[in-house]
Design a protein that fits this description.
Elements (H helix, E strand, L loop, with lengths): L2 H14 L9 E9 L14 E13 L4 E12 L11 E10 L2 E8 L2 H8 L4
Parallel strand pairs: 1-5
Antiparallel strand pairs: 2-3, 3-4, 4-5
Length: 122
């Protein structure tokens, strides 16, 4: 297992426990992107969510700089009351790692889109 994969696993281990407090893993100039979705959405922190849950299904080390993480998430919007907890969303995140820091994070709401963009199969 590479050091990049170890880093990504440690990030997601914290996130699966609900610990979003550390950003030591992020490059100071990290780039965040959401690759799909009906409209651009910006959410700062997790205070917009109640009972937010994240579960990793698979890690894929694509090359020396990219790790793809296949996940499921759920929760309830505090303001909207929208509940995605009963209907888990299959998602994916592509992380670019260089010199022990994540330099770019690309989130996909639809896992199928991530796999298609990367020429991969589930």
């Amino acid at each position: 297992m590479s050091s990049n994969l170890d880093l990504v696993r440690s990030i997601y281990a914290d996130w699966e426990r609900g610990d979003w407090s550390s950003a030591d893993w992020a490059d100071p100039a990290i780039e965040f992107n959401i690759a799909d979705g009906p409209v651009p959405v910006v959410v700062i922190g997790l205070s917009a969510w109640e009972h937010f849950s994240l579960a990793v299904e698979e890690y894929r080390e694509l090359d020396s700089e990219r790790v793809l993480v296949l996940t499921r998430y759920g929760g309830r919007g505090k303001t909207s009351g929208a509940d995605i907890g009963e209907m888990w969303t299959n998602s994916a995140t592509l992380l670019y790692v260089r010199d022990g820091k994540v330099t770019k994070l690309v989130g996909y709401n639809a896992r199928e889109r991530a796999l298609a963009d990367l020429g991969l199969e589930e």
